[in-house]
Amino acid sequence: MPKQRNISTPVPHVEVCLETTTPQEILEKEIPQGNQWLLLVVICLGWFMSALDTTVVNLALKNIGEDLQTDITGLQWAVDGYALIFASLLLTAGGLGDRLGRKRMYLIGLATFTLSSGLCGLAPTYWMLLSARLLQGGGAALMVPNILALIHTLFPRSEQRARAVAFWAVIGAVALAVGPVVGGLLVSLLHWRSIFFLNVPIGIVALLISLPPHRIPETIRHLDERGLDLTAQVMAVVGLASLTMVLIEGGRIGWLSWPILTCLALFIVTGIIFLICEARGRSPMLPLHLFAILTFSVGMIIGAVENFGFYGFIFLLSLFFQDVQHSSALVAGLAFLPMTGSVIVANALTGLLTSRIGPRMLMCVGLALGGSGFFSLLLLDAASPYLVACFGLFAIGMGIGLTIPPLTMILLGAVATEHSGVASGVLNACRQVGGVLGIALFGSLIQVQSNFVQGLHLSALIAGCATWLVCLLAWSLTQRQF
Prior knowledge:
InterPro entries: EmrB-like (IPR004638), MFS (IPR011701), MFS_dom (IPR020846), MFS_trans_sf (IPR036259). Residues 39-482 form the Major facilitator superfamily (MFS) profile domain. Belongs to the major facilitator superfamily. EmrB family. With 482 residues, this protein is mainly alpha-helical. It has two domains: 32-214, Growth Hormone, Chain: A; 286-482, Growth Hormone, Chain: A (Up-down Bundle), CATH 1.20.1250. The protein has helices spanning 2-8, 11-19, 23-30, 36-55, 61-68, 72-100, 102-122, 126-154, 158-189, 194-197, 199-210, 230-253, 258-280, 294-324, 329-334, 337-357, 359-376, 386-414, 420-448, 452-478. The longest helix is centred in the middle third of the chain and has 32 residues, at 158-189. The chain is globular, with a radius of gyration of 23 Å.
């Protein structure tokens, strides 16, 4: 200990100089005044592309399957592979940004995402497409957690930052909602490969604007001698991939077959090792102590369940409209307009409604609406008029649009300020994991049932019950700790 005091005596002068340089001073030195909003739009292009690619591919699945000769299981992996890597690497990518510089990691992620999008569009075989999708998910994971940190650098004043974060949230919600519509239009007017090529010029423009050092300042790096927990990261990827394998392949090769039982055992073992690493590690990527906060734990469950149904049914209905009702990709894409519109409207109303009834009540209303939307799809069959699907899509979109913003607000208010970034990252990761599991399970159910419609009905029942259960859970806790 004495040696540490002697060594540290000349250091305070240097550290004070660094820490007294406020974000506002950095901004004034390195960014011309008035350009912050333009730069916000530029860095949100990466966020828009990563969110869009979560759902845009769904309307191209039928064409991809025909061109690259793969079945529903292969199509599930094409969608889930991206989300799986995205979810698995999200928290570690945030830690890399803290240590190596957030702008640097954002640019590496943007370049990786842009390159892999081009590779997806050029893929001559299914396996090359899947490999490029996995790389694309890695690029998205490097971008997303570092975008919010860059927003904090660009907008040091709280009132401007609040508006910037709201803009970021709307961009993500709109990208998810318009994905099926954009996908249907591009597949019908051009080719399924165009949904990936679309990202290339956008990514190049964003890179060219962001690269010059005077445009976006680099954040101060926080070098942590403890390093990243690579063992926990590997366990997270292997565990989530094993569970996804069980859900996707179980219906096809048998739930009690040795590959499925092996993957299930691998998921359990890696999950236990992951929890041990996080509990004992000095630099956990998933701080387990946050789950001792009831609001935080319930919020993670709600976020996962919301995306479980939302992503799962975008996948199912994209196939239903084209394979069961024999609609074109264009008509199938336009069929999602009620969901797109309701998400946008709900996000626009969130601020007003939150001030009127509070975030907790608004979230419960959103969950109740979303569950009703899933249950309404029990009436859907091959001969159903579009009005049946229209109501379900509208209610599901309105539900998620009214749920996620207040949920985020509640979660960030439940943790200490210094943990807000981690809490936001964990919520995003849980939502992505929920989406992965929804696509995996629902895709498996339509294969094990005697026909597609029966599988869709069972999936709607599961999604509706899960959504209403978390609604009841949130409601029961509204008057107490939640």
